[in-house]
Amino acid sequence: MSNIHIPKGWEMPESELTPESIYMNRREVLKAMGVASLFAAGALPACSPPQEVIDAHPEINLTDLEKTVYPANRITKYKLDRRLTSEAIAASYNNFYEFSEVKEDVDHHAQRLQTRPWQVEVTGLVNKPKTYDFDDFLKKFILEERFYRLRCVEAWAMAVPWTGFPLKALLDEVEPQSGATHVRFESFHKPFLAQGQFAFWQPWPYSEALTMKEAMNELTILATGIYGHPLPKQHGAPIRLVAPWKYGFKSIKSVQRIEVVDYEPSTFWNTLQPLEYGWEANVDPNVPHPRWPQTKEEMIGTKEVRLTQKYNGYGDYVASMYT
Ligand SMILES: Nc1nc2c(c(=O)[nH]1)N[C@H]1C(S)=C(S)[C@@H](COP(=O)(O)O)O[C@H]1N2
Ligand SMILES: [Mo]
After folding, report:
1. Which residues form the Oxidoreductase molybdopterin-binding domain (predicted)?
2. 8-state DSSP, 295
3. Which atom number of ligand 1 is nearest to the Cα of residue 156?
């Protein structure tokens, strides 16, 4: 059993890459192996597929509820133009300034974050404000898997399979009022747990915002998982925003509060350094940055260099919002 090796996307030649072959989640691995071969191999009692294929890294313990929703259905509509980043690389090179300014240290320090119980307050200019227990999201919204690129303003990039649901589904439920123009997101504030938050000159807690149009865009999701399982803490467990046409800093992690407002909210990085972190933050190779080249990006893990595309390549879905 343990010898069976199903190659992952980053081990495959470019010519063989198709959305369905880039990575297999737990259910697909089982299917590919075939129940019959499990019998033949005499491995039925354990009935567990090879570990290195399923939970490469990091270790994630699923709750009973999570076991019923992962892996989620894969939506193949959003295509990648490159192979997926290795799960282990994505999980060990992170920006999460609450825990460390050193990307390679975030995965270690972020394990202190207590992600249960976890509540998300959805409030502001809505008809039906509500505080959701995290499990409510898993019960209420249909999770789906989408392959997206993520482009950090620091000129590194990755391509990963997120699991989540459209932010629009949540907003529709709380019913934004007619005067609402923006949605503001706020992360947790626990300086004794996340020592980066002792930096009193920084506007903690981390916050970000989108226009109402951007928030309702079909690409905008709240992610609860990655690589077919719940988010490891360093990726922003238990729930984070993902807006793939914007620089990575918009995709706020570990969200605890979502507020619908009628003004343009200030945001963490834009407050600290407006010349480096524009409020809108759409990926744009034509807008130079004082520190990092914006015309190119380097894929983490493979160091492959790609030309950065306007809207991170998602113009078909988002360009119309900016005309
Ligand atoms: N709460 C919070 N969210 C955050 C950040 C952060 O420091 N704190 N960093 C942002 C930046 S700059 C990037 S590039 C992405 C990185 O996401 P990843 O570590 O899952 O790849 O998270 C974003 N979300
Ligand atoms: Mo970033």
Report:
1. 113-269
2. S
3. 14
- The residue nearest atom 5 of ligand 1, judged by CA position, is 96
Closest CA to 121 of 100, 99, 136, 143: 136
Q: Using a 6 Å cutoff on CB, does residue 95 contact ligand 1?
A: yes
**Residue 79, token pair as written in the block:** 């295509």
* pLDDT, tens digit, 9 for 90 and up, residues 22-66: 678 777 777 777 755 555 444 444 444 443 344 455 678 999 999
Contact predicate 253/240, CB 8 Å: yes
Checking if the pLDDT of 16 tops 60, the result is no
Residue 248: CATH number of its domain: 3.90.420.10
Task: Provide the number of structural domains found in the chain.
Answer: 1
pLDDT digits (tens, 9 = 90+) for 192-202: 999 999 999 99
* Ligand 1 atom 8, closest CA: 96
The atom of ligand 1 lying closest to the CA of 103 is: 19
- The domain containing residue 150 runs over which residues? 4-322
